[in-house]
Amino acid sequence: MTGDPVALHRRADESAAAVTTVVAQPLIRLPWVARLATPAALALAHLLLAAGLIGLALTRTLPALIASVAVKSLGDLLVVGRIYALVTDLAPPGASGRYLAVFGTSWGIAAILAPVLGTQLLAHAGTTALWSAMAAFCVLLAALHLRVTPEAPRPPQPPAANEHGSTEPAAAPGPRH
């Protein structure tokens, strides 16, 4: 039984992305990945996305497609793993909900515009141009993250021990009689 090549391509793409996202979860918890500063992590994520997209632009075989999607999915995983924390860190105290709402709205707008613009590029320039343009955009985003994305604040350090060896705050003096 042979299937529609487009449907097979779509199933392979979706399957490779899903498997990579599940299997790679422990990778984003590796110490060296966790220690990456936010700008570096997001730049690396976008470079992985670009590499996967270039692979999609050049691929002609199913194994190459699966490998390209796996690389792209690693980039997706790194972006999603860091971007929400960055948005929350950028928000002033008490405003993270509003910041996340605006951020979510921007994803919604992108989800509407991408198919419209992407199909136009696809129709007029072809698949190689579509994937290559997206890869170039990811490289631009990687460079921008290194230039403009602020580093996330470091986690609070444990309090230093006082002269008595305790980390508890000194008791306030009681009332004097």
Question: Any idea what the radius of gyration is?
Answer: 23 Å
Characterize the quaternary organization of these chains: single chain
**Fraction of residues in helix:** over 70%
* DSSP, total strands: 0
Write a structural description.
With 177 residues, this protein is mainly α. 71% of the residues lie in helices and 0% in strands. The protein is built from six helices and no strands. It has helices at residues 5-23, 31-34, 38-58, 62-90, 96-125, 127-148. The chain is globular, with a radius of gyration of 23 Å.
Question: Can you give keywords for this protein?
Answer:
mainly alpha; 177 residues; 71% helix; 6 helices
List the SSEs and their pairings.
Layout: H1 5-23, H2 31-34, H3 38-58, H4 62-90, H5 96-125, H6 127-148
Helix pairs in contact: 1-4, 3-4, 3-6, 4-5, 5-6
Question: Gist?
Answer:
With 177 residues, the chain is mainly α. It has six helices and no strands. The protein starts with a helix and ends in a 29-residue tail after the last helix.
